[in-house]
Amino acid sequence: MRQTRRSFLQSAATVPFAWVLPRIACADVSLGSATLTTVSDGSLTLPGSFIFEPMPKDELAPILKDYGISDDRLTPECNLALYRDGTNTVLFDVGSGPDFMPTAGAILDSLDAAGLTLEDITHVVFTHAHPDHIWGLLDEFDEPLFYDATYMMGRAEWDYWWDPETVDTIGDARAAFAVGAKRRMEVIEDSVQLFDDGEEILPGIAALSTPGHTPGHMSFELRNGSDSALVIGDAIGNHHVAFRKPEWISGSDQDGAMAAATRKVLFDRITSEQMQIIGFHLPQGGMGRVDTDAEGYVFVPGDA
After folding, report:
1. Which DSSP category does 98 fall into?
2. Which structural domains are found in the chain, ordered by start?
3. Predicted confidence (pLDDT) per residue in 198-221, tens digit
């Protein structure tokens, strides 16, 4: 039986953990005197309908053919940005932990492969509270996994998932997402630091509101010296249709129209400023640049 977007959302939270191969997704690159890299939390296995369901099928087919993408099954990477400036070691998101799906949850092994321990992480900054970004927050004793870290989240995102009405208004297919997010957020309620759009949350790290994928989704501009990069989370969620047709509504976004408008603004800024980007679900480690061609935008992996 073909898995639908709805059945995936309802069942993903119950998939048991399986071992996944740890790896360092991308080599360290310089950002002024700081270093920026990504570490892998594994990958997801999604039905194509999760993204493609609202899209015009006749126009979609040739795009998927160009990229060698199946309309039936997707396996996007999960890449967490890691920023080190000599004082702070900042991890953006925590991955999905052992309870989301068997191909994800590899962050601990990946950090170990990078020579990092839990104690090395000074700050965890969330782009948003979907399962593959926040369900890795807790250890097996339901305590914060990165126990020495300061946890930080955008105020609008926190308020959305904290609202008791969200579980009833998000839709049946995503209700488990709301329950799971709230349970983890309750553990850090008394210590989390909230911030708003435009704030410099840490030296060289500024919050940028990029709503649509979730109501309070945040991206982050990193600046050190004359160098800059943009951690975009899921604001640009894939390297194929999101780049070729950013105006199309994606089934993965909670507010499709708002997310499309956000992508347009992001692409305009990224290309005009020639910024390096780090996308959670972009390929080859998620780090690269944006170029243009006759068909639209193009993701160029790597740090060149």
Report:
1. G
2. 5-294 (3.60.15.10)
3. 999 999 999 999 999 999 999 999
